[in-house]
Amino acid sequence: MEAVMQNRRVSARWWRRAAIVAAASVFALSGCASGGESSSESATSEAGSATKVDDIANTVPEDIKASGKLVVGVNIPYKPNEFKDESGKIVGFDVDLMNAIAATLGLTPEYREADFAKIIPSIQGGTYNVGMSSFTDTKERENTVDFVTYFSAGTQWAQRPGTPIDPNDACGKRVAVQATTYQETDELPAKSKACTDAGKPAINIVPFDGQDAATNAVILGQTDAMSADSPVTAYAIKETNGKLEAAGEVFDAAPYGWPVAKGSALAAALQKALEHLIENGEYKAIATKWGVEEGMIDKPVINGAIS
Q1: How far apart are the first and last CA of the chain?
Q2: What's the burial of 66, exposed, middle or buried (CB within 10 Å: 0-12/13-18/19+)?
Q3: In sequence order, which residues have a C-beta less than 8 Å from that of residue 38 and are 6 or more positions away?
Q4: Are residues 158 and 239 in the same domain?
Q5: Which residues pair with 256 in a beta bridge?
Q6: Tell me: the pLDDT tens digits for 143-171?
Q7: Structure pTM?
Q8: Looking at 53-57, 180-184, 254-258, which range is the least confident one?
Q9: Per-residue pLDDT tens for 81-133?
Q10: How many helices, marked H, and strands, marked E, lie in the chain?
Q11: Number of CB atoms found within 10 A of residue 213's CB
Q12: Are residues 262 and 211 both part of a single domain?
């Protein structure tokens, strides 16, 4: 999962550490992103049997085609889209879909873990070919990279049972988010400003490096609620077995997109590959496997931001 990046708050460091330490007995972490980078190759999607389509593969830029690899920058964890299973393998809806995309293009995906805020700059610098980390396609992000849309997600809040929070009136409340996501950079600042404009206390926005830590902060009572992309919140509620519940309905639906270098022909290649997977039913099979069918789209576009 989203207009934009880069404002991590130093004041949240204590919260991050506390949540990660205390969470071990509550909700197992899947490996929060670190400041470094690691590389991991993944096998072809288990949800289907995508194979190379020559006409589409021939549209891949020559340098990428010659390498035989699709280098993918990813931030983990963000369940159910991208996270590590018990064996340490990177899995999820985004992963299965990117595996199928790469197979269609005749490439092998190579996943490189990085901080969320570093992925787009690394695409601009040529370190990664594409980003895969539930990025919302926004007008502001389109100033620096191109996007290929592949999913539609909204925002949804979660709370502890019995502690109701109104997402439209959370003045003075502590709300956990994953750092640099749309929820931190746009949604909550706007709601907090509405509070202060009305003479009410600001929302205390508490960012964490990984979504699991943000989820744990709510469970442990360190924050009053969390805000995340709708598939992420739904998965967290299901996985925590009654420790969390939805706070309000899904709102502000927007497209997820894969960022690529501005002007790169890779965008059209990804678009054609996804169109193929939509037509042959594999896209639906992958979405169904991860329970995210409600966010499926009919047609991918290049730079489809709505705001």
Answers
A1: 15
A2: exposed
A3: 112, 113
A4: yes
A5: 136, 151
A6: 999 999 999 999 999 999 999 999 999 99
A7: 0.73
A8: 180-184
A9: 999 999 999 999 999 999 999 999 999 999 999 998 999 999 999 999 999 99
A10: 11, 11
A11: 27
A12: no
Residue 260 lies in a domain: yes
Residue 165 lies inside a defined structural domain of this protein:
yes
Beta bridge partners of 204: 174
Contact 232, 245 (CB under 8 A): no
Rounded to the nearest 10 degrees, how much is the dihedral formed by the CA atoms of 258, 156, 159, 216? 0
Tokens of 221: 């009572």
Q: What is the reported pLDDT for 23?
A: 38
Other C-beta atoms within 10 Å of 163: how many? 12
Question: Which residue intervals of the chain are DSSP H helices?
Answer: 13-22, 54-57, 62-67, 93-104, 116-124, 182, 188-197, 211-219, 230-239, 266-279, 282-289
Residue-number span of the structural domain to which 237 is assigned: 10-27+154-252
217 & 273 share domain: no
